[in-house]
Structures are given as structure tokens and as C-alpha cells.
Design goal:
The protein is mainly beta. It has one domain: YVTN repeat-like/Quinoprotein amine dehydrogenase (Methylamine Dehydrogenase, Chain H), CATH 2.130.10. The chain is 7% helix and 52% strand. The chain is built from one helix and 28 strands. A hairpin with a 4-residue loop joins strand 13 and strand 14. The two termini are 36 Å apart.
Length: 347
């Protein structure tokens, strides 16, 4: 190779490194503050708060689109007087009492941090996810036992899918073909076929299923069982629970690392006796290998695409804990709004 070619290769490599570094620095973490009617925006590199975005009443969950351009937030419509319905009330049956009016999902432009759309959905929306191709958003409506399907380009509902009793957390399989929905009061996980937009199965899982998840390699699915203090492991091929793993009190959200080797589970506990830990489950042995102490009411959890940091909302402490995944320890605690719940990272 000539010296000229060597110089060109070096220049390209340096350019790629600079581009990669710029992308990393631009990563942002979005936090739904259910008790403050806001979404906090954090810088993923410095852990500093960049913005606080006013949204609708009691924003419960937030999800950044795969292209990183928009953050979708579930809430109960225009802001106004609030009742104390935040923070899951320990995830007992009857939590999240249905609102009198249909809810909404609001859309934040991540470039300007401005709300650019308000989409009506069903009664008491809980969680939202966006399909891998970015075309559709799926929203659980706990108040009417449905999942709304929203066209992200027109920002309008295109389908309403009946599911189990009080659907709450949901996640899309890595191949985009199925949506797993945790039916909090039904004791099941609904499986939605994304081609037909219909429920094709209900998997019995246990008591108080709160949130679902998948390993990135698609080998395993999971659901937190908030009333069993356990996580059910599901084989997506057979749609059967293959084992349960005991974790902390009232587990809520869970998230697998990018290498599909570890599952992080946030243990919220109850308002009277808050939990403050994240359980780390080894996905070969299916044993809890580490327990990291965070803040009171550990609720939402997400892992960055590098697998370097996990971000955990502490509902009763009004903070986000940043966990170094490799070192299994909290490296930063960031104040956010009241009663933080859902959390997502801009890719």
C-alpha cells in the first residue's frame, strides 16, 4: 500500500472515530416524571440535565424512536389539577385507577425538545414502544384493555387491539414480528402479531405481570411479576414459561444488556416500604449474581447501546441512578422531577 493510501486510510479512521465520539456525546436520556407533568432530558455523557419538557397529566412512560428523532410520552391529556395516582401504589391490583377521559401520547422532537404532536389513544395509557422500522407506535391502555396502534408518520391511531386485563408494560421482539404485553390484572402476557395487528396468544405467567422484555438475540423473553417478587422467563418459540427467578420486592421494569448475557431488574417495593435495588440475573445460570443499591422506589431501567451504563428511575427519591454495568455499582445520582417512572435513551 502506498504512503498516500496509508494517509487516506488513517484520515478515514480518524474521521470515523470523531463521528463516533460526536454521536456518543449527543446521546440523551429521557425520563417521564409522573408527579411533575414533565419529561427530564439528561446528557448521557455528562449526566447533566439538559431540559425539562412540559407534557400532559401524569406522564408515565417515554420511548425514543429507533432513529432518535422523537420521544413518545404516554399521559392523560392536557395538564391540570392532579390526583395522587402516581408511582404505581406498589403495583397492587387497583393501581393506576382509570381516568375519566381518554389519554394521549405526546411526541417530543429530540432536536428542539418541543412537543410537536398530541395523539389521542385509549383510557389510561401506560407504556409506549416504537417498531424497529419506526413506522408504528404501540400504546397499552390500562383503562379499556386495549393496545392502540399509531401511525408515526401521520401521528394518528390506525388500530385498537383487545388484549388481557389491564395491559401495562410492552416490548417488541427484536425481529419486529411480535409485541409482548404484560396484563397486570390478567396474569398473562398477550402476544400481538404485527403483520395482522391481532392478539394471537395469551401466555399464563403469574401474579402481577408489569413489564416484558427480550434479549437482543431474540432467544429469551421475560416478564416481571410484581406480586411474586420474581421474573418469569419465556421461550418465544414455544410461548411457554420455562423458569422463574426470584428477585427483590415488587419488580417493575427490566432490560437485557446488548450482549444478551445479563438482565437488569428494578425492584420498586411499596410506598410504605420502598425497594432500592436492581437485581442482575446471569442469563446462562439464571441466577441473581449481583444486587446494586440505587434509590428509593427503583422503577424504570434502560441500558445504553454500548452496554456501559444502565439508568434507573427512583420513583420515591425523585432521582435517576447511573449504574456502571461492568463494575456493578452506582457512579452517579441525578435529581429529576417528581415520581420518575419510564426512561429511554436516544440511540
Amino acid at each position: 500500500m502506498t504512503s498516500k493510501n496509508n494517509w487516506l486510510l488513517t484520515a478515514v479512521q480518524m474521521g470515523l472515530l470523531a463521528w463516533s465520539g460526536a454521536t456518543w456525546a449527543a446521546d440523551q436520556v429521557y425520563v417521564a416524571n409522573e408527579g411533575a407533568d414533565t419529561v427530564s432530558v439528561l446528557d448521557a455523557a455528562s449526566f447533566k440535565t439538559l431540559a425539562s419538557v412540559r407534557v400532559g397529566k401524569m406522564p408515565h412512560n417515554v420511548q425514543v424512536s429507533p432513529d432518535g428523532q422523537f420521544a413518545w410520552v404516554t399521559n392523560n391529556g392536557e395538564p391540570g389539577p392532579m390526583s395522587d395516582a402516581s408511582a404505581h401504589k406498589g403495583m397492587a391490583p387497583g393501581a393506576h385507577g382509570a381516568m375519566a377521559q381518554p389519554g394521549a401520547v405526546w411526541v417530543i422532537d429530540t432536536g428542539t425538545q418541543a412537543v410537536v404532536a398530541r395523539v389521542p389513544v385509549g383510557m389510561h395509557p401506560a407504556h409506549v414502544v416504537v417498531s424497529p422500522d419506526g413506522r408504528l407506535a404501540y400504546v397499552t391502555n390500562g383503562g379499556d384493555n386495549t393496545v392502540s396502534v399509531v401511525d408515526t408518520s401521520t401521528r394518528s391511531p390506525v388500530a385498537s387491539i383487545p388484549v388481557g386485563q389491564f395491559p401495562h408494560g410492552l416490548r417488541i421482539s427484536p425481529d419486529g414480528k411480535e409485541v409482548y404485553v404484560a396484563n397486570l390484572k390478567g396474569g398473562t402476557v398477550s402476544v400481538i402479531d404485527t403483520a395482522s395487528q391481532k392478539e394471537v396468544a395469551q401466555v399464563p405467567v403469574g401474579q402481577g405481570p408489569a413489564q416484558t422484555g427480550f434479549t437482543p438475540d431474540g432467544r429469551l423473553a421475560f416478564v416481571s411479576l410484581s406480586q411474586e417478587n420474581a421474573v418469569a422467563v419465556i421461550d418465544p418459540a414455544t410461548r411457554q414459561v420455562i423458569r422463574k427467578v426470584a428477585v427483590g420486592a415488587v419488580p417493575i421494569q427490566l432490560y437485557a444488556t446488548p450482549d444478551s448475557r445479563t438482565l437488569l431488574v428494578a425492584n420498586q417495593g411499596a410506598r410504605q416500604k420502598p425497594g432500592n435495588t436492581v437485581s442482575l440475573i446471569d442469563l446462562e445460570s439464571f441466577k441473581v449474581t449481583n444486587t446494586v443499591v440505587t434509590g428509593a422506589g427503583a422503577h424504570g431501567v434502560v441500558v445504553d447501546r454500548e452496554g456501559r451504563y444502565a439508568y434507573v428511575t427512583n420513583t420515591y427519591a425523585n432521582t435517576v441512578s447511573v449504574i456502571d454495568v461492568k463494575d456493578r455499582r452506582v457512579v452517579k445520582t441525578v435529581p429529576v422531577g417528581k415520581a420518575p417512572n419510564g426512561i429511554s435513551i436516544a440511540p
